Description:
Elements: E1 3-8, H1 16-23, H2 27-47, H3 64-70, E2 73-76, E3 80-85, H4 98-103, E4 105-107, E5 115-118, H5 128-136, E6 143-144, E7 153-154, H6 157-160, H7 165-173, E8 176-179, E9 182-184, H8 194-209
Antiparallel strand pairs: 1-3, 2-3, 4-9, 5-8, 6-7
Helix pairs in contact: 2-3, 2-8, 5-7
Amino acid sequence: MSIxxxxxxxxxxATPAVAALMESVEPARLAKICADPLRLFWRARLKNYPxxxxxxxxxxxxxxxxxxxxxxxxxPGEGTVYLTAGGGDDPNNAIQGLRLRYEGGTIRPVNAxxxxxxxxxxxxxxxxxxxxxxxxxxxxxLPVQGPTLKGRKTVGRNVVSNRTQxxxxxxxxxxxxxxxxxxxxxxxALVPDNDEFQExxxxxxxxxxxxxxxxxxx
Length: 218
């Protein structure tokens, strides 16, 4: 599911100079001037989506912030700009979990008893069931300490053949956490507030139309 914001290009907070310019320009043109700067502003906010605290901060980036940033779209109208992020309601394009992170809420398993999420560097952001399938087909690499091995080795076909699949599965389960539900706290900072958007819009209008005051061209 996507999140959206509609920005009205008004002169309520504009300086007298900018307000005079805005009154002399068609609302549709103002919206077109502001659309891309507003899109880039929100995109930068999402791209810098904060990582989880603690040990998770050093784990590989799952690309969530980058994907969310690239999904931002701006549609200019008559004096308004309609902004969306998350890819809309198309499941093929949607950035899963963006609205949940913004509004907060609780997720529960569907067609399963528990939720699974990786808690180590090698499993963070990965599917538990995909890794289970890899273990069962002896294609996964797992660090192990075996009685006949010195130090930590990488599980390969020859090592797995000397261990039961139950042992491999026990190791894998230790790298995941399981819960019946997970609650996300709201993060309203994912969407800039109206004052922030308005400031970006006013700056864009001034950069484009300001030369008029000095006798320049549009």
